[in-house]
Amino acid sequence: MARLAEIPQPPLPWLLGVARNLLRQQFGRARRQQRLADRIAALTSDADLQAWDAGEHVVERAAALDALGSLNEGDVEALTLVTWHGLSTVEAAEVVGCSPRAFTVRLHRARGRLADALRRFDDQSPAHSRAARAAAGQDGRAPLLRLSEGNGR
């Protein structure tokens, strides 16, 4: 009840402001979800949809996580800043405290080490082989770890 005393009088303008902010947040969330769905649709072919096998994707995800876990902290940081957080190389360089050119080299080397790690898991499952080719951009699809590269953000 203490917070109730903080509501200004008359309450209508305050309530309208709260409702406006909530609607703006909901609209923004829906817009971000739609952009993500559009991006996924653009990267998905009809063959991907026909060949969808949940078990295979679980194995590929496990292989990617194992490979990522085998990398050093600097490589993981470089990869996640660009792919997970969606930063440009300039923004990511600022985060780690180096020049954009140095970060680009660091990211290139990290991607190579990730592809090597995925290839090491190749012996365990055919799905790992597909994950390694995707990470290196050698499977004819968009490279797994280059989705946000050059996005201008």
UniProtKB/TrEMBL annotation:
Pfam families: Sigma70_r4_2
Domain RNA polymerase sigma factor 70 region 4 type residue range list: 63-114
GO biological process: DNA-templated transcription initiation
Key words, A-Z: Sigma factor, Transcription, Transcription regulation
Protein name: Sigma-70 family RNA polymerase sigma factor
Native source species: Trebonia kvetii
Annotated spans, Disordered: 125-153
Regions of compositional bias (Low complexity) in chain numbering: 126-143
Protein's UniProt keywords contain Acyltransferase: no
Family of this protein: Belongs to the sigma-70 factor family. ECF subfamily.
